[in-house]
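Forwarding the complex inputs:
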Amino acid sequence: MSDWPALLRSMEAPGTIGVAAGNSLVFDLANISGTVFTAGGVWPAANRAIYLPFMVEAAVTVYMLGFEVVTQSGNCDVGIYDAATSGRLVSAGSTAVGAAGIQTVDLTDTLLYPGVYYAAMCVDNITASFTRASAVSALWQQSVGVQQQAVGAVTLPDPATFANPASAYIPYLAVALKSTV
Amino acid sequence: MDFPGAPPTPLFIHTFTRWGAVRDVSGIIGSISPVSLTWPVANTAFYVPVWLQWPYNVERVFWINGSSVTSANTDFGIYNSDGTRIYSTGSIAQVGVSAFQYTTPSPDFILSPGRYYFALACSSITANRGTTGSVAGSTARLRLSGFLQEASALPLPATMTPVAVTNPCMPLCGVTRTTTGF
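Prediction (whole assembly, two chains):
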């Protein structure tokens, strides 16, 4: 085994870090509560950003973020934040919510070193709906670090100003570690 | 970053995360969701096994109060696997319904990789003044997952003298490496 620091290794083979994946800190909620992400729900508040924490254990490159649209409406923004600084590392900017089905949003390829990050999403209306979990209380979300922000616009801010979650709404966001999902 | 780089650690470690034994119980009985609890026996402590795979800097400890807090006191503690108390908050009046209640250890401290018990005791058996957690599961399943309890344990003792679980109580309590927020 090399003596070189582990942070320069690539993470072994995961294609994505989804909300219910092992590297997601939301995994604990989904796993213990038996929560499923199989139904759509409208975004809980216009221009609210939702921040979902995940952990990177070896350096990875992020290529895009994906989610599942149920009802198309308006615009969204997605991005990645550093939990240590609340700083925005990368985001797509305002993007039209796509037709029903999987939507992937390209990001500037971004190297993430070991650490804790947030996958973020903001939507400018409460008509658009996405596959999400609705059975996990806001208080329980807080216990793993889920956060939100009333942004006032669809574009994700830099830095984030975190607040505790107010809605039982966890969108299924997936951080893509490959350029094809 | 210091060479070779500290491993990343989660924002929170608590009894309902993958590092706590409530995860084991859910593996036996299925889904578990925390709710406002009525503490089963006044001044009884419940010890929940927790394990860490990396050093973890404890900046704050916490539990989540139930939907009533009047005249209720709580003590949160951490014990090593031999039952020796590493830290406890002491008996503290509950403040804030259905909300996190944090205490900041001074100084902060590091838990080395290993096995621990997170302990919580409560003085009140009035409805919903326990904490937030779950009573799902039988005592047998909690025993199979390593839970313990101790009577007359508020404040928490310097050394655990636990007995087998006779009340199915799984409090949500833990630690965070964050100094503010949440």
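DSSP finds two helices and 13 strands in chain A.
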